[in-house]
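--- STAGE predict ---
source: upstream dedup step, 1 unique chain passed
mode: sequence only
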Amino acid sequence: MKAGFVRGMKEITDSGLKIAEVVTDAHLQIGSMMKKDQAHITHSHDIWHAAKNLGKKLISAGQEKSCKDLQKWSKDIVNHFWYICKTANILDEFMGMWVGVLHHVVGEHEWLLPYSDSGVAACAHDPLTGEPRGDKEYMVKGSPAHEALRKVILDKRFMNNIHYFLNFRSTAELESFHNHLLMYSSKRYAYTSPVYRARSILAALDYNVNISRPAIQNKDGTLRLQRTCNKKSGRWTVYLVKEKKQYDHVTVLLDKVLHRRLEDRVGVHQPMELEVGD
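--- STAGE serialize ---
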């Protein structure tokens, strides 16, 4: 992965483009290389990966029988992390809002001292009355679940990486395309460079044609929804159901292939010229 990243960076700079910012996941080797060799380039981490990893840590910490209450709060804490990364511009602002979650989950929405110079000693939400909504209950302060949350929130490695999240960058669309690419180029098989390039082009055409599909509407005009359950966290996720994919571009491609073959006077059995990057 590092070798491909270095090669991609070199191709971009050799083409005359200036790189101002790079967004990656939390790859240790790439992070180390950026610090040593590319310190002049802003390096950000994908917020989606960061939120996903945080959710995994919270669910893992909540696997203990005495920490089950933490699982019920995991999604809300991840959403809070997402909101802070989008709102905070500097590390001081992030810390002021982030550590406050330890108070919120026990029903404390105001505390004595702020956790940063620019922070406030209170939650940012409107005044609340009664217990939280849904099946959640406030944790007991100092309980095993609360202490497990404290370890995740104040994890040293996590705190050292906060500056990577402050630009609020996401590679979600790229991740979606990479998953789509596996339909055309499975990891179970090896492809030559020309074949892999052709399959990648077909995947890109399919992805671009169908990316803006509208959601299916019910007879009453509402949008159709589908839900899935995460077995580990026990939480349901709702998403829109889109219309079926269209493949009209395949007919156009077949038509071009047929005409190209009919007009070809040399034949298909000839040496293949490789690209520079093959």
